[in-house]
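Bench notes, afternoon.
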Amino acid sequence: MNFGKLRLLLWVLVALGSGFLIVQRLLPTAPQSAQIAQPGTSLPIADPYVTLLDSTAQPFDTASLKSGHQLVYFGFTFCPDVCPISARKMVVAEALYKKAALGMPTLTTPATSLFITIDPERDSPEIMGFYAENLIEDVLDDFSEAERTAVKPDLIGLSGNRTQIDAAIATYLVYADKVVEGSAPDDYRFNHSDLIYWVRPNGAVQFFSPRQSAQDIADAMIAASS
């Protein structure tokens, strides 16, 4: 499949009461038939690893994490609603997975969360790092002092230039549409898909919808690692 010639739109209908994700693939000339997939279904992503910039503006290749579970969310720090909720759920899921590992010595597969911005013009590497640090601390407030060190999430905020981010968006088949709301340079927002992607250690990619909880995500990783 030539993704360079393919425009993929993801509509999340969960907010409308549907339990499904409709993935419609649109060629430049005419639409193809839609697919309806249950959350958790594998996505046709052959190579999910991308190289972006970490909080110190150094290249970070997500292939360095391929021995473990990766939870990936695409959003932006100016997002007022779905991004904070979903990004936090992703990080809580990682912490719950690590908490489960405290009582399961065989649960040794590592897990990492990645928040990739779709708005690199405003979300610099430094801002993404700051956002990640604050989100980690917020999530840790849900755990006891005795648990905090063991369950601390490895959340990595990633940015890059527009070309790098667009390549990552294309890799994960993310829907991201910039909506200009005024005349000021930063007066805009994004309509975007609201999915948490799960890159398994074998490179297969699945997704979780907004209907699924942090515990659902953690349980899936636990089951896959047991």
